[in-house]
Design brief:
Among the domains are: 14-203, 3-Layer(aba) Sandwich (Glutaredoxin); 375-456, no CATH class. Helices cover 50% and strands 8% of the residues. The protein is built from 26 helices and 15 strands. The strands form 5 sheets. It has a 5-stranded mixed sheet, with helices on both faces. Helix 7 (122-132) packs across helix 9 (185-203). The chain is globular, with a radius of gyration of 25 Å. The protein starts with 13 loop residues before the first helix and ends in a 9-residue tail after the last helix. Mean pLDDT is 90; it is low at 1-37 and 267-272. Keywords: Signal.
Amino acid sequence: MPRSTSARTPGITGSLLVALAACLSPAAAQDAPAGRGAGNQLARETSPYLLQHADDPVDWRPWGPEAFAKAKAEDKPIFLSIGYRACYWCHVMHRECFRDPEIARMLNAGFVCIKVDREERPDVDQVYMTALQAFSTGGWPMSMFLLPDGRPFYGGTYHPAHAKEGFTGFDTVLKGIAKSWREERPEMERAADGLTQIVRRKLGDGRPRRRAPLPTSLVADGLAALAERFDPEYGGFGYNRDNPRRPKFPEPVNLAFLIDQHRRGPAKRAGRDDPLAMALTTLDAMARGGIRDQLGGGYHRYATDRYWGSPHFEKMLYDNAQLASALVRAFETTADPRWKAEAEATFAFVARSLTAAEGGFFSSIDAESEAGEGAYYVWTRSEARKVVGDDPDAEAFLQVYGLKREPNFEGGRYVLTEPRARAEQAEALGLSAAELARRLEGPRAKLLAARGRRPAPACDDKVLTAWNGLMIAAYAEGGRVLKDASYLRAAEKAADFALERLREPSGRLLRTYRGGSAKLPAYLEDYAFLVHGLLRLHQAGGDPKRLEQARTLADRMIADFGDDAEGGFFFTADDHETLLARSKGPLDDALPSANAVAALDLLALHRATGEARYLDLAGRTLDAFSSFLTQDPASMPTMLTALAEYQDLRPTPPGGQP
């Protein structure tokens, strides 16, 4: 999601700011060669995001030593563009800027240009997003400017080619930086020094961190803090009445924590808000909202409103994997068949749209098609009426899915939602809930078939180890709880695929696979999430092979990523490429914290094997992040879940008092 860049950057002098913001002399562009237009070095990549830029007139290069050597040899700043295939605003900036001959001439003349897929290189994305957030709200596409040694000095997100609607034109930014590069190099160096220090301080500078006690009450404190962020009317978290247009994200890490807290019983809640009610209220609102694909199943990335009505239409594997798990747990907890049906619809979407023939799972589906953002999913009332035709259940369908109300999307169109609970709709129509559900099947099938004839959004068909681990876990849990052998078979096939195609002969994992080629060293999340999936598969099927596979990978994770001095795990392995900082973060985001999942893996291995070393390592991981946990526990629900499990096994937590 784009954000306009702040006009004031810490460490950059006033004269440099003027140079960056003003419409300066176009001298830098006058000597630029024409855009190439015949392809660039991205043509040799496998990432669909990088390949879509392979015939840009910009002389893109992949991240690597060759690009940095060129920048140093030619004494040029680096323009680093980071995004991902499903990112709508990445597509917009691609069309408006990177296909523009004038912009391409300016970039090719004054910069060495590097393009990065953030999903392939989350380590690079993490470093430069931290720099960007020092003076701006973050987002993608990320547009960063670096010294030839990789230190950042300026950045932003989306820019149009030329100024419009409050956005600074990219041509203005490029001219300003080119002029400053010639005339104010010392100021740029100081800005880079300042931002680099911020990155190292936030991501980790190698110094020991302060420890804090972890009392048994901390999990309940985290639950209470999360409850304060809960929207009691429409579910979800982070609603702010002073900023009601703030987007809403599913945040499945919160749902997993809340359901786990309910499982632990009322005594653990100490009279706080009901965690199950918060989880189910959120699942209900999302399941009836536009964030849920009411025809095809699965969930979009986020909603642009408080009511979950209008989504940002990209679909991500990791969201659907985590939400499928949450829905399975909701059914396991409540026995309400509604959650079983919702989980099954999500699994059906993944099977239909995100599953490779070889067994792995694709990464995402774009927000836009040829007809524009969301066009694949939305309807006018007349379109919907024409498709359902004289179906006797057409009027019921139109009422249930909000098509008799005012349009809820631009251009007089509708995102299908269920504005009223299904039971209320059934009562209003004089039907039982079961009879209404049956009557909706025919019109829904007709619309889904008609939608299938529209130009479809593109799929990013690369397979990422970490995200596949989450989906393997979801399918395994679905097979165990829903008693569906097909889900276990899907988990088994994906696990075999990952272990055969995304692992080197040495046993080390690789990050990404596409078109028969696997590459890039894996990160902590790849190990932690795949181990998590294998352990869930072992729990569901009982195959000792899966436990041994999980144990082998966990031992490799400990050896390659573990911080022997301070506890916890680094995001990159010991022999990984050196970046500005080597992070070791505990916070959950769209993905659960890799350190927290690693701690849960270690606890599960201890329970399965009886080996005390796994329990000890889990305790050291929790202790390493104790100061974070005590400062803002609601931002770390997965780590809180690990802490609760650890306290079950050792009532006196690491560094704390009972």
